[in-house]
Predict the structure of Fatty acid-binding protein, liver.
Amino acid sequence: MSFSGKYQLQSQENAEPFMRAAGLAEDLIQKVKDIKEVTEIVQNGKHFKYTITAGEKVIQNEFTLGEESEVETTTGEKGKVVVNMEGDNKLVTTFKNIKSVTEVNGDTLISTLILGDIVFKRISKKI
């Protein structure tokens, strides 16, 4: 299944508790919690280009499945990760102590971030 497409955030669950647990400042949480970010994914085989536009902030990451890559998070942190595919529709990685699962189901992109017992889910639709 191809991840390629442009998706706009439609809804999210547990955003504020997750951002607090991740250590974001309260003023930043209030600023970003309601932004309807757009995610664009270009997949070429095992290589992915992932662009997130949230207001004026644009984050671009590129990675190849199974290979170590440096990525930037939405908070501006940079680090090395290895992204793997589970099944044919889930991208899975861990950065620090946060597990990230991104999956495509038809025209829906579901991004789940797990920190301890807090599950932050973002649902985006293809535009």
Remarks:
- The helical segments are 15-21, 26-32.
- The chain has a mean pLDDT of 92.
- The chain is about 10% helix and 60% strand.
